[in-house]
Amino acid sequence: MDCFTRLEALIDAGGADAAEEARTLLRHLAAGSRAAFDAADEFLIELMTLAFLVEAGLEAFHNPARRLARLRLSRLKLLLA
Predict the structure, then answer these.
(1) Mean pLDDT of the 67-76 span
(2) At residue 45, does pLDDT exceed 60?
């Protein structure tokens, strides 16, 4: 499975373990560039926010948080392409 496909699946799941798994996946991708490292860090922050919202049961904020995480992931894809 492609790394980015797995990251998108983590966004859809939004569980508590998603951030740790994403961190493991991104460790190798963002190793070469400072801009990619920063983009990966921003993505992880959005994913952790999503996990918090899911765990807290704040369903009204799930879709906006997922949308923002996907935007951060697309930025990371562009930097690594």
Answers:
(1) 95
(2) yes
What pLDDT score was predicted for residue 80? 83
Identify the burial level of 49 via C-beta atoms within 10 angstroms of its C-beta, where 0-12 means exposed, 13-18 middle and 19 or more buried. Answer: middle
Q: At what angle do helices 62-80 and 18-29 cross, to 10 degrees?
A: 10
pLDDT of residue 69: 95
SS (H, E, C) the chain: CCHHHHHHHHHHHCCCCHHHHHHHHHHHHCCCCHHHHHHHHHHHHHHHHHHHHHHHCCHHHHHHHHHHHHHHHHHHHHHHC
Q: Exposure of 70 by Cβ count < 10 A (0-12 exposed, 13-18 middle, 19+ buried)? A: middle
pLDDT at 1: 54
